[in-house]
């Protein structure tokens, strides 16, 4: 499986370091993913490289012009490409959505700024609008990076240890269990005895109970479904 990402943004420098770090860097080295960031301004044709204008009908802020976005997407897209627009009013990102997106071959992720993009972009170019949560960021570039990180983890071989995918929170719709490592006694705070027991059945039972209790306290909504 191989997934290509093209990000269109006014601030590629916000995330270039992120993509050059840790697991995403390794995924690119191993040929599992390709991530390319693009400066949307490169597709402007006027001498001031203008990407935004005042909104028709008035109101606060600026709206991103359709021309450079259409030009960029038309240049980058292939027949199988899906175009994702990052927006606080999109569908919420979840593990389930990431598992759908990982089936794609090529995603162009468009990051908005100001009051967002001209509606014609959303109507004509965009296949899916995604939000990373009920809050508004100054622009969608970080949100695009979050989507890429979250989707890439589902590429077979990306994590190295596939067990981490099945054991993690949200796969079972329960929150995660507490993890401990050495030392067994740190400043008098002891690791729960069961984890030192070597009794795998008892450990599994304890972890499951911890997951249920933590979920009941922090995310009771997950237990209702
Ligand atoms: N752009 C601004 N806020 C956002 C959010 N919460 N999710 C996705 N894109 C955004």
From TrEMBL:
E.C. code: 2.1.1.228
Keywords for this entry? Cytoplasm, Methyltransferase, S-adenosyl-L-methionine, Transferase, tRNA processing
Catalytic activity field: guanosine(37) in tRNA + S-adenosyl-L-methionine = N(1)-methylguanosine(37) in tRNA + S-adenosyl-L-homocysteine + H(+)
Name of the protein described by the UniProt record: tRNA (guanine-N(1)-)-methyltransferase
The cross-references to InterPro entries, in alphabetical order and at most eight, read: Alpha/beta_knot_MTases (IPR029028), tRNA_m1G_MeTrfase_C_sf (IPR023148), tRNA_m1G_MeTrfase_TrmD (IPR002649), tRNA_m1G_MTases_N (IPR029026), tRNA_MeTrfase_TRMD/TRM10 (IPR016009)
Q: Which residues bind S-adenosyl-L-methionine?
A: 112, 132-137
> SUPFAM superfamilies recorded for this chain?
alpha/beta knot
The record's annotation in HAMAP family points to: TrmD
Record family assignment: Belongs to the RNA methyltransferase TrmD family.
According to its UniProt entry, the function of this protein is described as: Specifically methylates guanosine-37 in various tRNAs.
- Enzyme class (EC, first level): transferase
Which subcellular locations apply to this protein? Cytoplasm
The record's subunit annotation is:
Homodimer.
**Principal place of residence:** cytoplasm
Against Gene3D superfamilies, the record matches this protein to: 3.40.1280.10, tRNA(m1g37)methyltransferase, domain 2 (1.10.1270.20)
A GO BP entry is: methylation
Q: Domain tRNA methyltransferase TRMD/TRM10-type, which positions? A: 4-224
UniProt superkingdom: Bacteria
């Amino acid at each position: 499986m191989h997934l290509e990402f093209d990000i269109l943004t006014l601030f590629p420098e916000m995330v270039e370091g992120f993509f050059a770090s840790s697991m995403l860097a390794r995924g690119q080295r191993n040929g599992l993913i390709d991530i390319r960031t693009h400066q949307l301004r490169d597709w402007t044709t006027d001498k001031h490289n203008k990407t935004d204008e005042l909104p028709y009908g008035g109101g606060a802020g600026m709206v991103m012009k359709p021309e450079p976005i259409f030009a960029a997407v038309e240049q980058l897209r292939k027949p199988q490409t899906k175009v994702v627009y990052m927006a606080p009013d999109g569908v919420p990102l979840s593990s389930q959505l990431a598992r759908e997106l990982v089936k794609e071959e090529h995603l162009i992720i468009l990051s908005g700024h100001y009051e967002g993009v001209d509606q014609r972009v959303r109507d004509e170019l965009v296949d899916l609008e995604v939000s990373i949560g009920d809050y508004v960021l100054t622009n969608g570039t970080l949100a695009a990076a979050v989507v890429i990180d979250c989707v890439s983890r589902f590429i077979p071989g990306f994590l190295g240890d596939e067990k981490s995918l099945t054991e993690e929170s949200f796969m079972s719709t329960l929150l995660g269990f507490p993890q401990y490592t050495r030392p067994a006694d740190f400043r008098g705070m002891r690791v729960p005895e069961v984890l030192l027991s070597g009794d795998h059945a008892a450990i599994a039972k304890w972890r499951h109970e911890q997951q249920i209790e933590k979920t009941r306290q922090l995310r009771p909504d997950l237990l209702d479904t």
